[in-house]
Amino acid sequence: MKIAFIGLGNMGLPMAKNLAEAGHEVTGFDTASVDAPFPTARSATDAVNGAEMVITMLPNGNILRSVATEIIPAMADGAVFLDCSTVDVESARAVAEQANAAGLGALDAPVSGGIGGAQGGTLTFMVGGDQAAFEKAKPLFDTMGKKAVHCGQSGNGQAAKICNNMILGATMIVTCEAFALADKLGLDRQAMFDVVSTSSGYSWSMNAYCPAPGIGPQSPADNDYTPGFAAELMLKDLSLAMAAAENADADTPIGRAARDLYRAFVEDEGGTGRDFSAMLPRFAARGHT
Ligand code: NAD
């Protein structure tokens, strides 16, 4: 398939490489200079010329909107605009509307799995948009990832992503604060893990990504909290969740508390560049200083 790939950063470059390696004809574009093993174009509009599928992997909704406005008029008849960035639901729906109005297919397909998943071709895609566009993109999802869930109308991929990550952020925080409480109560961390991971407090944060070093499966805690999933990316996703909740008039008090804690951690407490599970040393330090 002839594919344009716009946004060749930490995620986009390895995703595009996997498509090129699978035999697709990929043309890339990024505003920064990128050393790519496939041809790159001088502009986004040049990149999309004649492409059947245009994939974007960009930092945020404002950039996505401006790129969409630039490239949609240049896209080939019947092509699909496939955005894999994590952006706000409103931007995803606005861009899909713009593409549909121009007679193009549109999908929002944010990913989970991080840079490792992008490199290894093991991402999970959460996809919003119409069935015909989903079917067309399905072989590409299978190359870049291991799973693609069609979640319904445009914007629903972003909705699924932020709801999942709101649960993840909140459970990570409560797991970390529970470990710090257990420390103060004299409960051994291994005993805490052995109980909780097999009791009703279990979660992915505890069982698969334990924030306590040396306990449970290998996780960023065992590597001095080198990300993994950086705290600032969790803050981005929680901020998107709170913006969506406000727009939809949904009551999300625990999500908001998680957003506020990650904001303080990232902006004031040295959390930038640390894994999001580094909330544990942050809670554990309290009271000892
Ligand atoms: P990144 O900053 O490494 O890459 C973004 C790229 O977009 C950069 O190379 C930048 O130069 C380029 N860019 C910016 N404006 C542009 C424009 N107008 N035209 C063309 N290119 C432009 O970010 P990333 O880590 O690759 O993340 C990309 C998206 O994926 C984000 O929405 C992020 O939230 C999401 N995501 C990231 C991860 C992760 O672990 N990094 C995991 C899941 C989802």
Automatic annotation (TrEMBL):
Quote the catalytic residue positions. K161
Organism expressing this protein natively:
Palleronia abyssalis
Q: Which family does it belong to?
A: Belongs to the HIBADH-related family.
Q: Which GO terms are recorded in the biological process aspect for this UniProt protein?
A: L-valine catabolic process
Pathway entry? Amino-acid degradation; L-valine degradation
Query: Tell me, what is one Gene Ontology molecular-function annotation carried by this entry?
Result: NAD binding
Domain 3-hydroxyisobutyrate dehydrogenase-like NAD-binding, first and last residues per copy: 155-280
What's the catalysed reaction? 3-hydroxy-2-methylpropanoate + NAD(+) = 2-methyl-3-oxopropanoate + NADH + H(+)
Write down what this protein is called. Answer: 3-hydroxyisobutyrate dehydrogenase
